[in-house]
Amino acid sequence: MKVRDLGEDALVERLLLGLGSGDGVIVGPGDDCAAVQWPGAGGRGKALLLKTDCVVEGVHYLPALEPTRVGRKAMCRVLSDMAAMGGMGRYALVTVMTPRDHTVDYWRAVYRGLERAGRRFGVAIVGGETSASRCAAISVSMVGVVPRSQLVVRSGGRAGDVLFVTGRLGGSPARKHWAFEPRVQAGRWLAEGHFASAMMDISDGLAADLPRLARASGCGYEVGTLPRTPGCTLAQAVGDGEDYELLIAVRPHKADALEQKWKRAFPRLALTRIGNLFEDPSCKNLPTGGFQHFA
Amino acid sequence: MKVRDLGEDALVERLLLGLGSGDGVIVGPGDDCAAVQWPGAGGRGKALLLKTDCVVEGVHYLPALEPTRVGRKAMCRVLSDMAAMGGMGRYALVTVMTPRDHTVDYWRAVYRGLERAGRRFGVAIVGGETSASRCAAISVSMVGVVPRSQLVVRSGGRAGDVLFVTGRLGGSPARKHWAFEPRVQAGRWLAEGHFASAMMDISDGLAADLPRLARASGCGYEVGTLPRTPGCTLAQAVGDGEDYELLIAVRPHKADALEQKWKRAFPRLALTRIGNLFEDPSCKNLPTGGFQHFA
């Protein structure tokens, strides 16, 4: 079977099957980040978050995209994954794969984008490498940190949990796939306040990502209305992807308090109650406006 | 200026210039691994080692190489870097970039190679991702650990230090570029016994790597004889690269004790005294057998 017949998502799932157990592993493959205990630190204290993510020219960005934006995007995608676990990035390693006829100035601009985005969110680039390649790609590996008791995973949701999303969904192809804000402060705040029972970032679109969170939590879901980017159809809001907003499951008795405190903490960022998790895993109600997700 | 005019080594040096400072950074770019303090652990205890490394089809291996060997090589290259800092790998993330017409079985075999090599040396694969790409590549990011007081860097050498190498050099293209043994136990043993004042692994060949260690230590060097792989010329021994043996600088008063204890600890692995570091940085004497290194 070829990769094209299986798809990249199913491929990585198959490759990682049965891996990820080992001393100190708290969260293995299948969540936004891996989480491990720091050897020797015992069961308390802080957990390490580990994540690697690559953007490939022609797949994740067009060759014409300004290189500082390419760098910013590569860094912010990983920051968004850290935020989705309730953590903060700390150290990054950058791998640059480059055709030999790319210019040095191009890569310096990519690095400016990487470095600025990192600095803004407290991440230092501590190493990197370049390799010759026929296609351009940037891979960012990050180590982050989260207090062990505040780690939020995808599988923590329970029947009855209220589903929220930050910001507005849809429109990334036209607008913000390179300019999104990773929800770093919001993710930390939600974890610190123990509001989120489960969380992930919406990178492939709600129609692809909500089923992942629900499945990890062993639940079904029902979604009513959605906060759409102005001008976007419902199909775009659930299907465009690259929103990098947070999808959050919240225990019902905490939902009202969350909404009130959120308004004071993040007056300029929408937080919208979009639905609930349900006990029946076959309950999968998401208004799609005709969007069909082909995995 | 194009990447081809500058070369990948000079490119990464230029890109990383001025980066790598930040809270808790012990070793930034330019060594085998980055080393950072674990936030909140204070100045004592253990350091995290961070490293990412990629192998690209057609650049680091030929398409015909058995996929389990590709995976083994990708994992062992990073283990070798960890060993060169005196540390052990613990957790790895794997990025697979794949053309859509590669087979799923191919990548499963790559993963078997990765996983076996990791397990043998105590490394768990805790996550990964796949991305579509026009060219195949595998990137391994690893987090390792080393007691803070045993961390060995390239810059620790001093004039008078005796230079050693493990094993024998040369012949990798014909023989062992995919079958080398990362010197994990040896690296740990050297660090634990505080024998190594500076250390690195020989990945690009002694003619390229020794000048790096010497420059980092602010020294010159003079090398006499070299332990060659049987059948290899001197030019091959210094120039072939991909030896993944350890190059070690040792304070002169420790050299004899090291040789004696080494024989008991590693009876089947050669350790050869090859020369010395010198105060004059312009002293660069390495028998090359006619080999010329073009950076």
Report the mean per-residue pLDDT of chain A as an integer.
92
Radius of gyration of chain A: 19 Å
* Structural class by secondary-structure content of chain A: alpha+beta
Tell me the quaternary state. homodimer
User: How much helix, percentage-wise, in residues of chain A?
Assistant: 25-40%
User: How many angstroms does the end-to-end distance of chain A come to?
Assistant: 16 Å
- Helix-strand topology string of chain A: HHEEEHEHEEEHEHEHEHEE
- Outline type of chain A: globular
Largest interface: A-B, 76 and 76 residues
DSSP summary: helix tally of chain A: 8
Report the β-strand fraction of chain A as a percent range: 25-35%
Which regions of chain A have little confidence, pLDDT < 50, spanning 5+ residues?
none
Physical arrangement of strands within the biggest beta sheet of chain A: 1-2-3-6-4-5
How many strand segments of chain A? 12
For the sheet with most strands of chain A, the description reads: 6 strands, mixed
Describe the 3D structure.
2 copies of one chain form a homodimer. The first copy, chain A, contains 8 helices and 12 strands. Chain A has helices spanning 3-6, 8-16, 67-84, 104-120, 184-192, 206-216, 234-239, 252-265; strands at residues 25-27, 34-37, 46-56, 88-98, 124-132, 137-147, 162-166, 196-202, 220-223, 245-250, 271-278, 284-285. In chain A, a hairpin with a 6-residue loop joins strand 1 and strand 2 (34-37). Helix content of chain A is 30%, strand content 27%. In chain A, helix 3 (67-84) runs parallel beside helix 4 (104-120) and helix 3 (67-84) packs parallel to helix 5. In chain A, the strands form 2 sheets. In chain A, strands 1-2-3-6-4-5 form a 6-stranded mixed sheet, with helices on one face. The longest helix of chain A has 18 residues, at 67-84. With 295 residues, chain A is of the alpha+beta class. The two termini of chain A are 16 Å apart. At the A-B interface, helix 1, helix 2, strand 3, strand 4 and helix 4 of A face helix 1, helix 2, strand 3, strand 4 and helix 4 of B.
